[in-house]
Amino acid sequence: MADSDDKLPKYRRIADALKDAVNSGQYAAGDRLPGENDLMETYGVARMTARQALGVLQSEGIAEARKGAGVFVRDFRPLRRRGIQRLAEAQWGSGRSIWAADIDNRELEVDQVDVSVAVAPERIADTLGLEPGDSVCVRQRRFVLDGKPVLLSTSYLPAALVAGTRIMQEDTGPGGTYARLAEIDAKPAHFREELRSRMPTADETAALQLAAGTPVILICRTAFAQDHRPVEVNEMTLDAASYVLEYDFDA
Amino acid sequence: MADSDDKLPKYRRIADALKDAVNSGQYAAGDRLPGENDLMETYGVARMTARQALGVLQSEGIAEARKGAGVFVRDFRPLRRRGIQRLAEAQWGSGRSIWAADIDNRELEVDQVDVSVAVAPERIADTLGLEPGDSVCVRQRRFVLDGKPVLLSTSYLPAALVAGTRIMQEDTGPGGTYARLAEIDAKPAHFREELRSRMPTADETAALQLAAGTPVILICRTAFAQDHRPVEVNEMTLDAASYVLEYDFDA
DNA sequence: TAGTGGTCTAGACCACAGC
DNA sequence: CTGTGGTCTAGACCACTAC
């Protein structure tokens, strides 16, 4: 109701009607919506107009087109990421992975791993307090939930610091990178996370298999040792539809 | 270079060429990009195809169309919001607004204020531990930076708790709502912020004057008193292009 | 094979911006 | 006023999906 369509373009009215139908429960998550041909007939519009209406729902993240099959209502069951508890020393200090703190009885797996050494990009060198041209250990990973990629992570550590440690290997051992840093007198004591959100690039869309209308959340985390020296920068790219981020803190 | 266009659709190639030109600095923020007519001529394509190419840049938040004028490269200078320091008691305890912690020598102003009493929505009643049908004080505000709205905030407090206090007025006085809560034995001691990101609804697009291709960040903050009783829920909607969120914490 | 969405063309009229 | 983007039509061919 309240279809106060003064002079809304046709495609907006059709889109609004579809959205109302979805919100009213007429179509549930996973259901197929009326296709281009259906809309052309129902509303007496041209193909491009029906298409544009369906495009609105896709760009708002409400629906998802599957080639040759139809347009479907998207599901939305995000993972809860506890920003602070997950990095408490009790997590990795006890040999558990910090990623274990993310799962709500669902499986979060590492899908792709790549470890290499390279010259530090300028912004990383700045943050880590390195000289231009210094090398860093680069650890790239992709995380998959229920078969769908949800997170890309690229971690940078000063090569001079971590040379010869298990951090240079694909499997960093119990407690992960942070437990290993603790063993070489570089135990993380303080973290800073910076968050942004924007629409994905084509590369990100491919790597995370993102539906149209899904933003990404960028997290840049810097880990500092007790002496305030930065020891790691971790740049993450999250499928925004797959995550809720939580931060708990005192006044 | 590296235009490895195997079988990319025309509009994607045109879009990629434009993106390269933007990234290489050929077009700076605020510059006008080649219009539909220019692209039709340059690439020998139909109007809808040129249009689709420009649509890619807009939906990725790179460019912004202005009716009757052209398509322009968007500017991007986000505001830094320090999630934890800004809520430290030292902020509001000293009579300063928590919003003062957001500005980087730029003006953040309240644009619209509305204070009312209403029945608590179900999710709010749940979070605040109220019975269904209980009333809440609802404080709605819009914040503007450099003339552009960047943040919508709706704060809910139990009506029984704040009745008769300055929290029910538009101007809550020095230190704001939290300072007033402290005066009635409900001083916030702990906070939880939950973050999501998604594409905006039509209402949000209008209220925040969002360009196409701009996501919103949703923050739901719950404030707890010393005795762990929830005293406020604040739902915020941020223009994602206007904000960087920062959280600092110890291991 | 029939139907779906993805891409593309070649036109059209409109509202709005800037000169 | 001219040019811009916004909307819309009526066709077309393709690749893919499901049956």
Automatic annotation (TrEMBL), chains A, B:
Keywords: DNA-binding, Transcription, Transcription regulation. One of its GO terms (molecular function) is DNA binding. The keyword RNA-binding does not apply. Residues 8-76 form the HTH gntR-type domain. Signal peptide: none annotated. It comes from the Bacteria. It holds the Pfam family GntR. GO terms for biological process: negative regulation of DNA-templated transcription. Gene3D superfamilies: Chorismate lyase-like (3.40.1410.10), Winged helix-like DNA-binding domain superfamily/Winged helix DNA-binding domain (1.10.10.10). CDD domains: WHTH_GntR (cd07377). PANTHER family: GNTR-FAMILY TRANSCRIPTIONAL REGULATOR, MANNOSYL-D-GLYCERATE TRANSPORT/METABOLISM SYSTEM REPRESSOR MNGR-RELATED. This is GntR family transcriptional regulator.
